């Protein structure tokens, strides 16, 4: 893996510079120089300050015996800036008196698990965990995800940490930074935690098949190919599928390479899904699995090359969960289809609770429902983030695939043959739109129409006007229960216009039975919002005029 360098210069920064690094419940920034217009924002001193701030935040939360040393595990994906940031984060933790566990190349779900695992030999459970990743973003980006045994940190926690980091950073001097190097009395320990995490996944599949012996191979005879996209998911082949007896020839892009030379490691990306589909067909495999960079998202492909992602993946996992927990509530993000609702509620007998975009929003909503007495066992986004109650509400792409492998293994143990057909059959009856469109209507923040206001206020005004237009049109039906944006049914399909969680953008999703109906829905939006001059309508115009 190529080395990457970043300036260690400690430049004066405002608190706002730190807060700009917040991306919902994550921290993201540019860690590698060389891309025009993208200056480095995640330097070593900044990363060190953030780690020190996390240590202070963690100490406040734990409020335990001050004489007891705390530990934090650190892992990273395959990005070229990983080693540099790991060193900076380690230094920040050690300067705060925290023992450090180095996991090296790891998955995001494994980092959370390290705060739950009870294994004194490897120093677990850790009091906290930091994953160095920027998911599927380009090679020059990187960032941090934080965990305790209560789960991933929320938006308010991240803001708190960044505010603390700003204060810490501005007390650092170049000389003081050098003086900290190697003076701490705390420990740094290298741990092969991925072997422990993978062993737990193997045990889960063996248990589901009724064979819980250490040498049981419930996937023997299954040909399963994996596409890790040169991220952190390559372990799944040798450490999970291999011990379970699966044939894995044809698996690809397993070696970590932070330049991501083959395709973006993203289960929503068309090129990525084409790559795993082709691998399944070329190798005549029974099943294909694809992960994102840090393995908190995944998707699959059946033996015929049919993609099992987005609504199909949600339908498949819902079918399995509703077999185990009849009538339970399935929480999803806002862009799931009407066909999925019918499938979950009419065919499977569950309840579909469509909530907001953002994996943490979806997970937190499922937890909230359980707290008020509404049983929910699955929270899942169309992006491939899926979290189960049985797995501590962790969005774990590997565990999601294990649920599918459990089904294959248990079917084989019951004498059912047919490869991945047992999974494909579970989504039979899912109604899918012939036309699916996703557009992004950008808000020009420098436009006079904003009158010095925020893009969020402007976007809310657009949505309110659209809502008023829809209310006066008898051909359209506004969703009676909706938590995000304006969702409308009409012309045999639906559309959702919402405000992005972080960016000056109004994403528009349309599903329709034909191009003509899709255009009719697009025209409803176009006519309603065309008076908002700061809104870039070019993608909407293109959709309307090409049909």
Descriptive account of the structure:
Its EC number is 5.4.2.2. Monomer. This protein is α/β, with parallel strands linked by helices and 547 residues long. The protein has 17 helices and 22 strands. The chain has helices spanning 15-19, 44-62, 82-95, 108-113, 155-169, 174-180, 193-208, 235-241, 270-282, 310-324, 338-347, 359-371, 397-413, 421-424, 455-471, 515-529, 538-546, and strands spanning 22-23, 26-30, 71-76, 99-105, 128-132, 141-148, 151-152, 188-190, 224-227, 287-291, 298-302, 307-308, 329-332, 351-354, 376-380, 386-388, 394-395, 435-442, 477-478, 486-490, 493-497, 505-512. The strands form 4 sheets. Strands 1, 2, 3, 4, 5, 6, 7 and 8 form an 8-stranded mixed beta sheet that branches. Strand 11 and strand 12 form a beta hairpin. Helix 2 crosses helix 3 (82-95), helix 7 packs across helix 8 and helix 16 (515-529) runs antiparallel to helix 17. The model is unreliable at 1-6 and 177-183 (pLDDT under 50).
Protein topology:
Layout lengths: L14 H5 L2 E2 L2 E5 L13 H19 L8 E6 L5 H14 L3 E7 L2 H6 L14 E5 L8 E8 L2 E2 L2 H15 L4 H7 L7 E3 L2 H16 L15 E4 L7 H7 L28 H13 L4 E5 L6 E5 L4 E2 L1 H15 L4 E4 L5 H10 L3 E4 L4 H13 L4 E5 L5 E3 L5 E2 L1 H17 L7 H4 L10 E8 L12 H17 L5 E2 L7 E5 L2 E5 L7 E8 L2 H15 L8 H9 L1
Parallel strand pairs: 3-4, 3-5, 4-8, 9-10, 13-14, 13-15
Antiparallel strand pairs: 1-2, 2-6, 5-6, 6-7, 10-11, 11-12, 15-16, 16-17, 18-22, 19-20, 20-21, 21-22
Helix pairs in contact: 2-3, 2-5, 7-8, 7-13, 15-16, 16-17
């Amino acid at each position: 893996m190529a080395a990457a360098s970043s300036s260690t210069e400690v430049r004066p920064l405002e608190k706002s510079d730190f807060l700009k690094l917040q991306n919902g419940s994550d921290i993201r920034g540019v860690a590698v120089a060389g891309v025009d217009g993208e200056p480095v924002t995640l330097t070593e001193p900044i990363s060190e300050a953030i780690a020190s701030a996390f240590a202070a935040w963690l100490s406040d939360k734990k409020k335990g015996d001050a004489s007891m040393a705390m530990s934090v595990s650190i892992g990273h994906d395959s990005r070229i800036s990983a080693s540099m940031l790991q060193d900076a984060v380690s230094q920040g933790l050690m300067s705060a008196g925290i023992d450090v566990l180095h996991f090296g190349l790891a998955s995001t779900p494994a980092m959370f698990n390290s705060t739950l695992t009870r294994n004194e030999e490897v120093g677990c459970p850790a009091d906290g965990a930091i994953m160095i990743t920027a998911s599927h973003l380009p090679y020059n980006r990187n960032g941090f995800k934080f965990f305790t045994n209560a789960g991933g940190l929320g938006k308010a926690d991240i803001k708190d940490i960044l505010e603390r980091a700003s204060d810490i950073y501005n007390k650092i001097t170049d000389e003081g930074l050098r003086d900290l190097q190697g003076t701490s009395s705390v420990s740094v320990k290298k741990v092969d935690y991925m072997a422990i995490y993978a062993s737990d996944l193997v045990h889960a599949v063996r248990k589901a098949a009724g064979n819980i012996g250490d040498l049981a191979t419930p996937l023997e005879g299954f040909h399963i190919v994996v596409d890790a996209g040169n991220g952190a998911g390559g372990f799944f082949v040798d450490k999970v599928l291999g011990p379970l007896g699966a044939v894995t020839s044809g698996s690809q892009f397993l070696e970590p390479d932070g330049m991501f030379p083959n395709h973006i490691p993203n289960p929503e990306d068309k090129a990525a899904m084409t790559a795993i589909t082709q691998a399944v067909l070329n190798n005549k495999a029974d099943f294909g699995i694809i992960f994102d960079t840090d393995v908190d998202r995944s998707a699959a492909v059946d033996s015929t090359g049919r993609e099992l992602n987005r609504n199909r993946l949600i339908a498949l996992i819902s079918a399995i969960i509703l077999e185990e927990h009849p009538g339970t509530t399935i929480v999803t993000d806002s862009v799931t289809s009407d066909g999925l609702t019918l499938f979950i509620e009419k065919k499977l007998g569950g309840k579909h609770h469509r909530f907001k975009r953002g994996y943490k929003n979806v997970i937190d909503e499922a937890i909230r429902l359980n707290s008020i007495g509404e049983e929910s066992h699955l929270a899942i986004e169309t992006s491939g983030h899926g979290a189960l109650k049985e797995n501590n509400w962790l969005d774990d792409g590997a565990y999601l695939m294990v649920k599918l492998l459990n089904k294959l293994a248990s079917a084989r143990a019951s004498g059912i043959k047919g490869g991945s057909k047992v999974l494909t059959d579970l989504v039979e009856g899912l109604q899918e739109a012939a036309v699916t469109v996703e557009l992004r209507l950008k808000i020009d923040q420098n436009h006079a129409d904003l009158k010095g206001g925020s893009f969020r206020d402007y976007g809310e005004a657009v949505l309110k006007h659209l809502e008023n237009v829809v209310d006066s049109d008898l051909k359209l039906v506004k969703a009676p229960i909706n938590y995000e944006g304006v969702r409308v049914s009409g012309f045999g399909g639906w559309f959702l216009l919402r405000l992005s969680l972080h960016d000056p953008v109004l994403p528009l999703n349309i599903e329709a039975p034909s191009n003509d109906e899709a255009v009719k829905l697009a025209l409803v939006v176009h006519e309603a919002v065309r008076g908002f001059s700061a809104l870039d309508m070019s993608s909407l115009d293109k959709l309307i005029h090409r049909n």
